[in-house]
Amino acid sequence: xxxxxxxxxxxxxxxxxxxxxxxxxxxxxxxxxxxxxxxxxxxxxxxxxxxxxxxxxxxxxxxxxxxxxxxxxxxxxxxxxxxxxxxxxxxxxxxxxxxxxxxxxxxxxxxxxxxxxxxxxxxxxxxxxxxxxxxxxxxxxxxxxxxxxxxxxxxxxxxxxxxxxxxxxxxxxxxxxxxxxxxxxxxxxxxxxxxxxxxxxxxxxxxxxxxxxxxxxxxxxxx
Length: 223
Prior knowledge:
The protein is 34% helix and 30% strand. The chain has 223 residues and is of the alpha/beta class. It has 2 domains: 127 residues, Nucleotidyltransferase, domain 5 (2-Layer Sandwich); 87 residues, Nucleotidyltransferase, domain 5. It has a 5-stranded mixed β-sheet, with helices on both faces. The chain has a 5-stranded mixed β-sheet with strand order 8-7-6-9-10. The relative contact order is 0.20. The C terminus is likely disordered.
């Protein structure tokens, strides 16, 4: 399975190319300017691999939650690439990407992904099977930090910059968290890994259906 993935949901900008089990990635913390970097990153990866878009099996992108502008940029670029090459598109949750990266790095099976949503709120969801393809246990939510909760009876690993923006989340959850990576950001490498499994299962979408997920209603209403 050959998948190109891009992400612009946070201050990080990344692109990754997965060919079978081999993976190459470009990852930069840039704050702004994602639109100017995504295509050059993707072009570099394809050129180094000696591939064109039409050699791929699909295009993936971080569909959110995350920054409104970054999500629209990533979705637009991914849709354009997929449509131009006649490829399916795979929108991947940025929270799931955070959970997957944390699971692989820490060895944790259960991960609470928590991202800073600005405006005093967080995006969060809990996942199992994070050493492989994360499985959602609690749905993605936008809430105040004090509303983050975990299923009882298990120990979890926390990941995401929501923990650095709001340290009280980890403090309140206490012994339910075995550890925290408060610097974890979604990466295109994890998006590509998740997308490859989705494509293998026949869950790629037509390019026009590759849409961002904002979670914050007032942002959606202003579109």
